[in-house]
Amino acid sequence: MSDKTQTVRRVLAEYTYEAPPVERGYAGQTLYVNLSNNTINSQPVTDVMKEKFIGGRGFGLWLLWHGVKDNTRWNDPENEIVISSGPCGGITQYPGSGKSLVVSISPLTNVVIDSNVGGHFGPLLKFAGWDAIEVQGRAEKDVIVVIDGPSGRVTIEEAPDVPVDTHLLGHWLLEQMAEKEEERYFMSSVSAGPGAEHTRIGCLNFSLYDRKRKALRFKQAGRGGIGTVFRDKHIKALVVKSSPVQGDSNHPADGARIARVGAKMHKEIHDYDDQQCRMRHRGTAYLVQIMDDYDLLPVHNFRFGSHPDAPRINGDVWEKRFTQGLPDGCWYGCTLGCAHTVEGYTIRTGPYKGQQVLVDGPEYETIAGVGSNCGIFVPDDVLEINFYCDAYGIDTISFGTLTAFLMECYEAGVLDREKTGGLELRFGNGAAAIELLHLMGRGEGFGKIAGLGIHRMKEYFVKAFGAAPRFLQDIGMEAKGLEYSEYVSKESLAQQGGYGLTNKGPQHDEAWLIFMDQVSNLLPTFEAKAEALHYFPMWRTWFGLCGFCKLPWNDIVPPDNAKTAEPAKVPEHVQNYVELFSGVTGREITKEDIIAMSEAVYNFQRVFNVRLGYGRRDHDDIPYRSMGPVTVEEYESRAERYDKQLRETLGLDPAKMSTPDKVAALRQHREEQYEKLKDAVYKRRGWTNDAVPTLETLKRLGIDFPEVVAVVKRYL
């Protein structure tokens, strides 16, 4: 597809504009594209949007709220995909400032999903003149939307012969639209792939052009199936071109202030990263060995937390495979540089067998999900799955977790080779997992069933195979319809809440409290857990409002951080973000303001879920596997631990009990604890006992808009 004469790009609609200068982090307008009627127009960014919704996820929620109806579902044309970076997105002086947030109604959860992503698209979109892009409707045929900032032109184009697989499509777009090398630095695309068409777990791939490698790389907005929405709308790609990015492209209120904070942080990373997490050498892969050491690495569908073969896929292994100089970031100026890559990997299976490719990653979630959780400890199997998930547009987290679920179902007798179409889905069978992925990419055979996601597979297995509903509910690691990310939460009640008491489903980017709760025992009471489940989700929400990556916050810390009053919050870095936001926007804030800003958006999202028919107490239920041992085998693998808990916590004598009775007694206790946690968290968040924000909370946060109040009043 390198010959530009092979494909004709037919323009269906065109909109011209003059890109406004970005002032204090905002372009001042959002781009609206309707694919049903091929309309394109500009909408203003209002003071209310900036004051209450900030940017990023906040803008996405606000625009989506006004674009959909109460009964809109994921595949209705009026569902939208909104992408926005935030006012601080695109600054180059502070590490981790290139994030974007994508918002839509999810085909997995039926409620609002937000997914954060690196890459260049979000910041370049802003520098091309738009704080967000809002895409609605469904095209009749596959289209590409092109935002050309330097020429002031937005087009909707048909290009029917263009490939859909991300790595082919991305390179074709680059060859078509960036003739000069320097143009490639400031061009980015968003795409999905055939797997997104055929499953509900489609991801979006955001491109960045790697100057050092002279190659295209991709970062993923993976969660919730937004790539499936993307392909349902018949979008092949969104493309943005920007003028060259400068250090002051955000036109901040106080550039010197930002530079001072950034210089301090860059020095901290340079001086201490090698002694702490080695993010610049191995990225998030450093977590594998730590999680295994603390019995937190998911193994065999979250049954266990460690495995003797974990060293075969730990950070030492990946550091040797990664090829880069330092740093290796996904946005300009990020000296943390955790975005590592394996070059020259030779594909072993599928349509690209024999080709040498660049594999972006793998990240910890991919290694743990498609690796240890499936009992696969072969690095090349992990790379094969990583590459094809990206090419097909499939979320690696959902793929890993649902494949582990299928493997347990196979070994428990729920499935067999006849039901799987010949796939022997046993733990450790990397070849079967890879073939399942190809089937999902093609929408064939058992791949069509797997692509439904765990929630719908459970229903199917009960109906089609007569499986036991309770067993499937217990071992099916999903909540709200979203597959779990890759941490074992059995011994951390706070982390169980961090997964279950969320707006979008069990994703660790709201609260990761395992070490505070389980390892350090810093949250001994329900009230302490509830406070943590208030603060940390609000704190982490704020990154997605502004355009920040969370990794520079707590994956590198000052050497004296442990001596501070609240080391888990990393106080010095909290103050950094206060300075950065104030320096960019000119809006002076405090650390308390950060939490209040996020509370408004977080509660608005909760009401949005309620509006769509979900978001109440029973929607926060979680599978028992995430609370404790489901099977006798699980219990006996950690018998000393669990027997001690029965003696010391429940006053029972395990010597007089059978293992099934022990499992039942522990289960009753842990389920009661989770319900008590719900009560405490709802109270702290200002919600009713049915998990709905109160009118007083809406008023306190300044989001008591009439349409929001009307939704809440239905449940008071």
Task: Estimate the strand proportion.
Answer: 5-15%
Largest sheet: 7 strands, mixed
Could you tell me the CATH topology label of the largest domain. Aldehyde Ferredoxin Oxidoreductase,  A, domain 1
Number of helical elements: 29
- Compute the number of structural domains: 3
The stretches of 5 or more residues where confidence is low (pLDDT under 50) are 1-5
Number of strands: 17
Fourth CATH level, the homologous superfamily of the largest domain: Aldehyde ferredoxin oxidoreductase, N-terminal domain
| Separation, N- and C-terminal Cα atoms | 59 Å
Residue-averaged pLDDT: 96
Physical arrangement of strands within the biggest beta sheet: 1-9-8-13-10-11-12
Shape: globular
Write a concise keyword list for the protein shown above:
716 residues; alpha+beta; Aldehyde Ferredoxin Oxidoreductase,  A, domain 1; Aldehyde Ferredoxin Oxidoreductase Protein, subunit A, domain 2; Aldehyde Ferredoxin Oxidoreductase Protein, subunit A, domain 3; seven-stranded mixed sheet; six-stranded mixed sheet; 29 helices; globular; disordered N terminus
Account of the 3D structure:
- This protein is of the alpha+beta class.
- It has 3 domains: 10-241, Aldehyde Ferredoxin Oxidoreductase,  A, domain 1; 279-483, Aldehyde Ferredoxin Oxidoreductase Protein, subunit A, domain 2; 508-713, Aldehyde Ferredoxin Oxidoreductase Protein, subunit A, domain 3 (Orthogonal Bundle).
- Helices cover 42% and strands 13% of the residues.
- The protein has 29 helices and 17 strands.
- The strands form 4 sheets. It has a 7-stranded mixed β-sheet with strand order 1-9-8-13-10-11-12. It has a 6-stranded mixed β-sheet with strand order 3-2-7-4-5-6, sandwiched between helices.
- Helix 1 crosses helix 2, helix 2 packs across helix 21 and helix 21 (526-546) packs across helix 27 (659-685).
- The chain is globular and about 80 Å long.
- The N and C termini lie far apart (59 Å).
